Amino acid sequence: MAAEEQKKKMMLEVVTPYQVFYEGQIEKIVLPALDGSLGILPGHSPLVVAITPGIARFEADGESRSFSLSEGFAEIAHHVVVIVSNAAEWPEQIDEARANAALERANAKLNNPANTDEQRIYARHAIRRAKTRLKLAQEQGKKKNPRFME
């Protein structure tokens, strides 16, 4: 039975330049990719995919977890998913005031006519990262406080 259970799981490793963010066995994961969300189950065909700023969601031992991802890539094998990202955060690690300030700065840079195209591209990515962080923090807040449930 243990071998059968192992077939239903895969290893997830999430690495940033600063730390191994997560390492453990999971049942499934949904990643934010260039072409939209990408769902992965054990036994998935090998693949390398570009990750865009967004929320990744996975299930481990019957519990769902979510975290924010910045730009990066994921290497998927039959029973292993390795994500290399510039940043990853759990909802409880997100400082909403700081994320709001980052969003305001990025919007100002995007709308500044003196900025170059490269600076505007960077600003668009910063906006997406900030919005992702805020969305995840707000989702976490709703789970903590049932009064906000829809």
Helices and strands in order:
Blueprint: H1 2-7, E1 10-15, E2 20-26, E3 28-33, E4 36-40, E5 47-51, E6 54-60, E7 63-69, E8 72-76, E9 80-85, E10 88-89, H2 96-111, H3 117-144
Parallel strand pairs: 1-9
Antiparallel strand pairs: 1-2, 3-4, 3-6, 5-8, 6-7, 7-10, 8-9
Helix pairs in contact: 2-3
Offer a quick outline of the entry.
The protein is an alpha+beta fold. The chain is built from 3 helices and 10 strands; from the N terminus they run αββββββββββαα. The chain has helices at about 1-5, 95-110, 115-145; strands spanning about 10-15, 20-25, 30-35, 35-40, 45-50, 55-60, 65-70, 70-75, 80-85, 90.
Report on the architecture of this protein.
With 150 residues, this protein is of the alpha+beta class. It folds into two domains: 2-89, F0F1 ATP synthase delta/epsilon subunit, N-terminal (ATP Synthase, domain 1), CATH 2.60.15.10; 94-145, Single alpha-helices involved in coiled-coils or other helix-helix interfaces (Up-down Bundle). The protein has helices spanning 2-7, 96-111, 117-144, and strands at residues 10-15, 20-26, 28-33, 36-40, 47-51, 54-60, 63-69, 72-76, 80-85, 88-89. The strands form two sheets. Strands 2-1-9-8-5 form a five-stranded mixed β-sheet, with no helix packed on it. A five-stranded antiparallel β-sheet has the order 4-3-6-7-10. Strand 8 (72-76) and strand 9 form a beta hairpin. Helix 2 packs antiparallel against helix 3 (117-144). It is globular. The model is unreliable at 145-150 (pLDDT under 50).
